[in-house]
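Let's practice the habit of predicting before peeking. Look at the sequence and jot down your guess about where helices and strands might fall. Then scroll down.
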Amino acid sequence: MEFRDNEAIYLQIAAFVSENILLGKWPAEQKIPSVRDMAVELEVNPNTVMRAYEFLQVQEVIYNKRGLGLFVAPQGLEKVKAYRKERFIEQDLAGFFRSIYLLDISLEDLQQRYEQFKLEHYTTEKDNENK
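Done guessing? Here is the structure:
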């Protein structure tokens, strides 16, 4: 994982965990990697991973089963979506709108490119069922 300088590493790790949940790689009630395993995988200090996991526990995305480890919460997917959606709307949407306005990009062109992006990067079982 390549870390960016403009955001705390623990938040980037939390985003990585969240993305795995959003993509369905880690469904509700599935055990996630331990602090130690995640630290080794990402080549970071275990305290940084612990901070990311604590952040996600406060958000009610993951929870601790004493003696067993950390698991995706039953409503973890919905919590991640709500948090990420709000953050995107508050932090990124205005800049996105400004760019499409200044560059005169039509909504139709965006729709077409978005559909192509999904096909190339995020074809899932759910998408295949809808075809």
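How did you do? The mean pLDDT is 92.
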